[in-house]
Amino acid sequence: MTKTFLSLFLGFSVCTSGYCQSFEEFFADKTLRADYLFTGNKKNQSVVLDELKSMDGWAGRRSNLDKLPLSGNGQLTMVDKATGVVIYRTSFSSLFQEWLGENEAETLSKGYENTFLMPFPKKEALVTVELFNARHEVSASFTHTVRPDDILIKKIGAKNVTDHKYLLNNGSSEKCIDVVIMAEGYTKDEMQTFYSDAQKACDAIFSHSPFKENMKHFNVVAVASESADSGVSIPRENVWKSTAVSSHFDTFYSDRYLTSSSVNDIHDLLAGIPYEHIIILANTDTYGGGGIYNSFTLTTAHHSKFEPVVVHEFGHSFGGLADEYAYTDAPSPLYPYDVEPWEQNITTLVDFESKWSDMLPKGFASPTKITKDNYSSTEALGVYEGAGYSMKGIYRPVPDCRMRTNEAKAFCPVCQRALQRLIDFYTEK
Ligand SMILES: [Zn+2]
Questions:
Q1: How far is the CA of 413 from the centre of ligand 1 (A)?
Q2: How buried is residue 238: exposed, middle or buried, by Cβ count under 10 Å (0-12/13-18/19+)?
């Protein structure tokens, strides 16, 4: 997995497949939206198609189309049916795969919505969705045909577009990375509060390197998705509300974990707006949130730690970064000790060469000790034990980082490099 990551970045300036694939050759300037259900339990998982939709315009990347940004916990591959050429790939993580780590998944089967956007193929194409387990083995695979003239591909986004306002507008969606910030649990009367919360989130992200230096590559749109009720659902207090994307705390019975299972609703509310990365702000002062790689960030806007948390969660959802914190001696089911995680900012040392070894002096002694001088440093690069939820056997690059605590001042150099590589990947001409 990690080898693939390295080679794709080394292969940037050459066309590895022998010719340069141009966007226009295979794609119309339209978006294909595929709504899937990921279903099953700990033993067996499957992916099924719910519905295909189409929208005018394609806001995603137009280069590196057949390459992966990161390995992810799942991958989507589109192949031109006639020639077998890979024409688009992307990767993701999912709430469903997180749920598979819960005890409940031993005895219960469930289904989770997952939606992906891809450029609209000009000719018949095959789309394959694969899910991986924690050992990076394929745990589910599903392939379906997309016929561009299929009359049942539902056209959306032409009318009734949700009210929105650009907070950052640096050019066309073709050139820029398009981030949307959506309202959740804000009534019509509370939209001014939402716009000011969205501005705070935007400012917080772009006060961090490397986003700060790359601002010109981003558009940020605040989307005023209205809710009937103010606030969000808190099941442990028997509080259920009617909100734009039906988010709730107590996901997997964990108090702070705020998520939404209504992924189709999220995307329906964004139809007609160019978007690639989604941040949802919940109108509540209760602490909580979550970020899932290439899915969405959902966090609460009126908690005192709102700003560091929204940036941390965006580190997950945009950057595919892992949590650098740890709270238990036991190994996490997500990160077996004998598998190198695909996330760039943690390591089991199984394949440290694929991580930040090149940023350390040769013969660097690991693990690095925390001292009274370096304990809060976000820059003292080394190999510190404790990351990915486990205090033993998994290592992080620095004592502290935005991906570890809310008090950290910045992303560490390894996280910054990983984010910069992604920004380059998405915006390279
Ligand atoms: Zn970091």
A1: 7
A2: exposed
